Amino acid sequence: MYQIGHHLHHALDVGCPREGDVQMNDPGNDPGAEYAGKGRVALPVSQYQDVLAALPEGTKLDRIPECEDLPAEVIWQKDHILLRGDISLEDAELKARGAVLAKVDGKVQKVRPGLARLVKINGNAREAVEALSGRFDGGIWLNHLMTICGVNMCPADEPIPVPNNHLPLPRWDKGGEGGKGVFVRVIDTGLAYGWREGHDWVADEIQVTGDELDQGNTYRPAGPTAGDIKLDVGHGAFIAGILRCIAPKVKVHVDNLFKWAGTMFEFQVRDAILAALEATPAPNIISLSAGCTTLTGKPPRAMQEVIDVMKPLAHKPLLVAAAGNDGLGEGDQSLFYPAAFAQDHGDFVVAVGALRQDRKGRACFSNFGDYVSVYDDGERRVNAFPKGWYTYHEPITYNAGSHLAKCYYYQPDPIYLGCTCVTGIDQGIRVQFDGMARWSGTSFSTPIVAAKVAKQMSSTGDPDARHAWETLYSHHQVVVDQAGGYKLKVLP
What we know:
- By secondary structure, the protein is α/β, with parallel strands linked by helices.
- The chain has helices at residues 46-54, 92-96, 125-132, 215-218, 235-246, 266-278, 301-310, 442-460, 465-473; strands at residues 61-64, 74-83, 100-101, 117-120, 140-147, 160-161, 183-188, 208-210, 251-256, 263-265, 285-288, 318-322, 349-355, 374-377, 381-391, 430-439, 477-480, 487-490.
- It has a seven-stranded parallel sheet with strand order 8-9-7-11-12-13-14, sandwiched between helices. Strands 1, 2, 3, 4, 5 and 10 form a six-stranded antiparallel sheet that branches. Strands 6-16-15 form a three-stranded antiparallel sheet.
- The radius of gyration is 22 Å and the shape is globular.
- The protein starts with 45 loop residues before the first helix and ends with a strand.
């Protein structure tokens, strides 16, 4: 089996394709062709261009591989570093690079004692980190770009419209008391304009709150797709809908943090999570359907600091994080953080993978391995979505010599038939949404698990989310994955 996921991290610094190299999105080409023998397959990367277009003016990215015709494996801020709090900006090497305390969102940075600061430099951040790591005893790091769970910086597929009267999946527990007295904070893309309309499970504006987007932030303002729903803008609202279907009394707040086509730097993600934990009321559960891999394979510094701060908190909050949609597993080099912290901090970090629709194994896109705590439904979930037109961004990949769609992650042999890779809608097609969507990804299995923990808490009156998770996990079942025989832990 040719497995794309197991080739992505073997040659990160490859150059651009040379003339005559194979392009994967051409149906007449060989799906197994590799660039220059480096074990790297060419895949479409249109969403990286969407991210570049969404960035604030003056924000610069760096990435590997450098060639923008290939998928971006790791992305970071090009001219900013994270610096340990005790390192002086007056250090000669830092002064030579013009180091100054960076502004965040145009404002003076809030310096948190004992935590890393964001520092702007003249020059290349990767070079500075590599050159100065020894001098500062490892106290200098890249500021990675975190994305809404995916190898393509998106959920596992793009949303597909369903009729407005379609029942949500998971089903709405109408009249249920699940989640009563429990607060879940969703760090995501806010609540899209008009998304509540006609959906009783999210109609309660006291229990379901968040950063409400106006029309200008929900729809594209200009260009050939003016008026279309923006990329990933309905992601946070969709997650809120899932939470309220399973735990209909849970209090939900959705932050609009991942504003740049579903991305944000880890420093800002750290500050958003810490601010949420410091707020009153503080959340019992943080639901995070985003993450990143790193250049070194080590945990991203800002996310490590979230873990360090969160662990001793008296109210014992739980972090439920998506395992990612890269199709990576045993033997792969990169871990998806912060979900991967579950391997060492499983008492308060839950990494959630996705099951395929028939629940007989993992979804093709789901990351898997020992660090994944549990798996839950992640294919073809249905929930609230903004109304309007949407133009598809990602091309469908095809089998050689035909126009039959093929699995993005496992080629030439898919691990099961009918995965979402082959049932999606092709790039450039424009469709209309009427308030409901079908969508897939570990992004959406994550709030299912968060909601089950909330329901467990309310059913017993236990205010300790970590204890509720431990109790729920103690009753997990095992599904033997039909693809590879992996033992997948599944909650009741």
